[in-house]
Automatic annotation (TrEMBL):
NCBIfam families: Mtu_fam_mce. GO terms for cellular component: extracellular region. PANTHER family: INTERMEMBRANE PHOSPHOLIPID TRANSPORT SYSTEM BINDING PROTEIN MLAD-RELATED, MCE-FAMILY PROTEIN MCE4A. Residues 32-107 form the Mce/MlaD domain. InterPro entries: Mce (IPR005693), Mce/MlaD (IPR003399), Mce_C (IPR024516), MlaD_Phospholipid_Transporter (IPR052336). This is Phospholipid/cholesterol/gamma-HCH transport system substrate-binding protein. GO terms for biological process: biological process involved in interaction with host. Residues 115-331 form the Mammalian cell entry C-terminal domain. It comes from Rhodococcus triatomae.
Length: 384
């Protein structure tokens, strides 16, 4: 009986210890799975590592799986904490100290969205704290590439160069500090200048092919000038002679040229004023040129005319037929150069002494000028 009681007591103690261990490991606590992916997890990341957010434990690491492309951490999250983790939360794998164990830390973003972390979510890790062994490994790789004797010689040379020059080195450092203090306010402008310089260099880089092509063309032009040097000299001599001759001609005729230009000033001014009308008239005349060619027989050899006889016009008499220049109104195209065939042009009335053409219906002798000079009084009716 005592043996059975002792066996029961031992069994009860084992059961209590087992239940305590299971409770300590969270075996009786429900959890929500979440997966974390990372390039690496380090040497001190173990299962049952803590999962925190803002320093508060919200779960634990259930398992760690290693893969060729990194590692996967299966987290056992506390269900009551899932609603407090934003859906867009970031994840980092950190360690408390350089040699301490790692833990998973959820980082709350500055602009959390309205949702929360869902069960089964897969979140990539942003960063993993570098371990001391990684630092030593990198340092070991660097030292393996450096030959100790050369390093020793370099350090010895630096030591010899600095020996006895502490004051000078301190002075140089002080001057450097003063220079940097003066340059520091100009750093933003320097940064802006560097950005602009980058744009300029990019522009130069884009135009380099055209620049090189231009240089090639200039080289070809230079070679041509060298090859035609004799002809170029002759050309310059001829141009010099022409310039001398032209100078002499212009100098001798300077008064005549000035007078001619003065006389042409009113004419050119009038032409300038009527330049729009001249332009539309010439363009309009050119537009009707094909029609005129057809009327005049342009589509056949020879010329097509419709000839007839009209009464002769009265001869010119002085001063009755003197021209009268008194028209005003300035230039006007009146529909040219593309007139509307359905619109009649305006009838312009000007004070020039002219009247619409009316054919003469009276036969009058038109004596030759010689007879008019020799025999005074032999004029048409109304003449003088």
């Amino acid at each position: 009986m005592k043996k059975v009681a002792a066996l029961g007591l031992v069994g009860g103690l084992v059961a209590i210890v087992a239940v305590a261990l299971v409770m300590f490991s969270g075996g009786f606590t429900s959890s929500t799975p979440v997966t974390i992916t990372a390039d690496r997890v380090g040497l001190v990341m173990e299962p049952d590592a803590k999962v925190k957010m803002l320093g508060v434990e919200i779960g634990r690491v259930a398992s760690i799986e290693h893969a060729p492309d990194g590692a996967r951490l299966e987290l056992a999250m506390q269900p009551s904490m899932m609603a407090l983790v934003p859906a867009n939360a970031r994840v980092e794998i950190k360690s408390t100290t350089v040699f301490g164990a790692k833990y998973v830390d959820f980082i709350v973003p500055t602009d959390p969205d309205g949702g929360h972390l869902q069960p089964g979510a897969v979140i990539p890790s942003d960063s993993v704290t570098v371990e001391f062994n990684t630092v030593f490994q990198h340092l070991s790789d660097v030292l393996a590439q450096i030959e100790p004797e050369k390093l020793n010689a370099t350090l010895g040379a630096i030591s010899s160069a600095l020996q006895g020059r502490g004051d000078e080195l301190g002075s140089v450092l002080e001057q450097t500090e003063s220079y940097l203090a003066e340059m520091n306010p100009s750093l933003p402008q320097l940064q802006e200048d560097l950005v602009k310089a980058a744009n300029v260099t990019n522009l130069y880089a884009d135009t380099v092919p055209d620049l090189l092509h231009t240089v090639d063309n200039v080289t070809t032009t230079g070679n041509t000038v060298v090859e035609e040097q004799t002809n170029l000299d002759l050309l310059l001599l001829n141009v010099t002679g022409l310039a001398n001759t032209s100078n002499q001609v212009l100098r001798d005729n300077e008064p005549n040229l000035v007078s001619a230009l003065d006389l042409l000033t009113p004419t050119t001014g009038l032409l300038e004023e009527y330049a729009p009308q001249l332009s539309c008239f010439i363009v309009g005349l050119n537009n009707v040129r094909p029609l005129g060619e057809e009327i005049m027989g342009g589509g056949q050899p020879g010329i097509a005319l419709s000839a007839g006889f009209f009464y002769g016009a009265e001869p010119y008499t002085y001063p009755r037929d003197l021209p009268k220049v008194n028209a005003t109104g300035g230039p006007g195209c009146y529909g040219l150069p593309n007139p509307d065939p359905n619109v009649n042009a305006k009838f312009v009335v000007t004070d020039t002494g002219t009247v619409p053409y009316v054919p003469s219906t009276v036969m009058q002798p038109n004596m030759p000028k010689l007879f008019q000079l020799l025999f005074a009084g032999v004029y048409p009716e109304g003449g003088q």
